[in-house]
Design goal:
Blueprint: E1 6-16, H1 17-21, E2 34-37, H2 40-45, H3 49-74, H4 79-82, H5 86-100, H6 104-130, H7 142-180, E3 187-194
Parallel strand pairs: 1-3
Antiparallel strand pairs: 1-2
Length: 197
């Protein structure tokens, strides 16, 4: 026969053997026992979500600022990989909020947005090198070469920030999955009877 429930050590109840022997008639539980509860939210807090959320927020704001500079100088086609960085800002806000209060729907929402941010960071890393600037003119002088170097430098900065966002999203997904995902949903507390010496 297969068990449908299994203990996962999230709740361990320890009952002293002497208290079972000394129970009165009609008493279902002894008066003194210990219960240790391992909270998944506390495991999530080990990942330092407030700090990582603030870093995510900062990276998102910085990418949008660099993207605005690129749009102003080189054309609106660069909005495609910089404007959706608002997801990084939203993920950062949600992650910071999830680290501030143990409200599980916020943790789950942060988990979802970090997964979306992870995929967006990968997409931005692919799109960023493919887009070329829109040249306003075709003269070959020093000002054109310097603006070309500046354009390449801004693209490198955006790419590096997207790599940082990718790493942050992976770390946060790892820690949030420990709080949100459970290996087995039909769990019971582990009850152990301890003989007092």
């Amino acid at each position: 026969m297969r068990y449908t429930f299994k203990p996962d050590d999230c709740m361990v109840i320890t009952i002293p053997l002497a208290s079972i022997r000394n129970m009165n008639d009609g008493q279902l539980m002894p008066e003194k026992f210990t219960c240790v509860f391992k909270d998944a939210y506390k495991v999530f807090l080990k990942g330092r979500p407030k700090e990582l959320g603030a870093a995510q927020l900062s990276i998102g704001i910085f990418v949008i600022c660099v993207g605005a500079l690129m749009v102003q100088e080189y054309g609106s086609s660069h909005l495609t990989f910089t404007l959706p960085s608002a997801l990084f800002i939203l993920s950062g806000i949600l992650t910071f909020a999830a680290g501030s209060s143990p409200f599980m729907p916020v943790v789950k929402l942060s988990f979802i947005f970090n997964i979306i941010s992870l995929f967006w960071a990968i997409a931005a890393l692919v799109i960023c090198p493919l887009l070329d600037r829109e040249p306003p003119y075709r003269r070959e002088d020093s000002s054109v070469r310097s603006t070309e170097r500046m354009f390449i430098g801004l693209k490198v900065v955006v790419s590096i920030l997207c790599v940082f966002e990718l790493i942050l999203a992976l770390i946060l997904i790892f820690w949030e999955s420990k709080a949100v995902c459970k290996p087995h949903f039909n769990t019971l507390p582990l009850i152990s009877i301890k003989q007092e010496v």
